[in-house]
């Protein structure tokens, strides 16, 4: 592989890894506070993509309005899921929460199947995100630069919120002990709802970016990226925000470079990700950031 091809593949890997990181953040935030694997998180990507299609394609809204509405409604849906499917079971056995999360995932997928049909729909990517940058021998899709830039801005805002604001301090306190935090007079329900809101907003943004990168939308489009993002969260150390970002970037780069170096393995890129998860759980179940299971902190 020559240097130009290597640079091109590294940029592609950074783009894919940024998407995984953006989605993985939602998993790790919810797990850090509730010790819950939110199985419906990946389906929020699909919801955002369908709302984006409706706004741009059906109602002919300007894309900033349609995309902003898609992200906002996805965040609102995440809060509704927390209020209706998770909060009533907060003091129930954890298996009940997990079953409720799986049920919420199936509910979203089948609602989309009934309302939108099973046929894949093309995603109308705005012209500003299409096209290719050419520099020397490099040919890089414009979206491959745009995705990491958007991800960096959103993650910077997230880290500022978590580590520099009052509600961020409350989130980190709840990740240590929900019961103790509630005894200190903090409105735990409001903080948890805010956590779901932020994670779902990021999932909505990730869903729109994913739909532009792979422009086919169907009711089950969120399953695979959701699973990959979960692997990224585990790889970095689930419950750790920095670990989710590192895990997402590493997984994206690994997938792209394996395919670039060994083209015959391109059909096994998904198997590679799941195999990596198995190996990681056997060798280092705490993930790369090295925190003790059950004690992960934001």
How would you portray this structure in words?
This protein has 298 residues and is mainly alpha-helical. The protein has one domain (3-283): Orthogonal Bundle (ABC transporter involved in vitamin B12 uptake, BtuC). It contains eleven helices and four strands, in the order ααααβββααααβααα. The protein has helices at residues 3-34, 41-58, 63-86, 94-116, 142-164, 166-176, 178-183, 188-213, 223-236, 241-261, 269-283, and strands spanning 121-122, 132-135, 138-141, 216-217. The strands form two sheets. The chain has a two-stranded antiparallel sheet with strand order 1-4. The protein has a two-stranded antiparallel ribbon with strand order 2-3. β2 and β3 (138-141) form a beta hairpin. α9 (223-236) packs across α10 (241-261). The longest helix is centred in the first third of the chain and has 32 residues, at 3-34. It starts with a helix and ends in a 15-residue tail after the last helix. The model is unreliable at 293-297 (pLDDT under 50).
Keywords:
298 residues; mainly alpha; ABC transporter involved in vitamin B12 uptake, BtuC; two-stranded antiparallel sheet; 11 helices; globular
Number of domains as seen in the coordinates = 1
Helix/strand/pairing class, anyone?
mainly alpha
Give a count of the beta strands, DSSP E runs of length 2 or more. 4
Principal-axis shape equals globular
- Name the beta content range: under 5%
At CATH level 3, the topology is ABC transporter involved in vitamin B12 uptake, BtuC
- Going across the major beta sheet, what is the strand order? 1-4
What is the helix fraction of residues, given as a range?
over 70%
**Number of helical regions:** 11
What is the CATH architecture annotation? Answer: Orthogonal Bundle
Q: What is the makeup of the main sheet? A: 2 strands, antiparallel
Distance between the termini: 40 Å
Uncertain runs: 293-297
Radius of gyration: 19 Å
What is the helix/strand order?
HHHHEEEHHHHEHHH
Mean pLDDT metric: 91
Broad CATH class: Mainly Alpha
